[in-house]
Amino acid sequence: MPLYNDNPESRTNLNVLMSSKLVASPLKSMEQGQLRQPLRDQPQHPEEEHWMGCSLLTLIGFGFLTFNSGMAVYRSDRDLAAISFVVFSYVDLVSLFYCLRLFEKTPPESPRRHHIKTAVWLLTTMLTAVFSYKVAAIMPFPVQILVWAMAAATVLGGFYAFFLHSEEQKP
C-alpha cells in the first residue's frame, strides 16, 4: 500500500516533504519496506565511536596518559623516587577513573555505591597528598604551608561533599 494516493498534488507535496533532511531518510526506508530502530535506541552522539564500552576520546586520553607516564619513567634516569611517583600516580588515576565509571553505572539505591564513593574519595585524597608533597618540596616554607592548607581544604571539602552533605537537604 503506497504512502500517498495517486493524486498528482499529493505526490508533489510528498516530494517536497522528502527533500527535507529531517524526513527523507525515514520516509524512504518506509517506502522500501525497511524498519528503522526507534530513536531512543540510537546513540546520542553517533560520531562517537565505542570500543569495549569506552569512547574513542577516552581511549585517546588513556593512550596519552600511558605514553606520558612511560616517557617520564624513561627520562627519570633510574631515580627510584621519581619512578615510584609516576607509577603510583598512573595506577591511582587509572583506578580513580575505573571507580568513577563503576559509580556512574551503579544504581542510586545500591549499598555498593557507598563503598565505591569511599574508594573514589580515598583515591583522590592520595593523589592530592602525593602531588602536594611534590609541589611543596620545591617551594619556600611559607608557600609550603599554603600548598598543604589548600590540599587539606580540598580533602575536607571532598569529604563533606561525598559523605556529610545529602541531596535531601536541598530546598
From TrEMBL:
Entry's transmembrane regions: 80-100, 120-139, 145-164
InterPro entries linked to this entry: DUF6490 (IPR045501)
Keywords: Membrane, Transmembrane, Transmembrane helix
The protein's name in its UniProt record: Uncharacterized protein
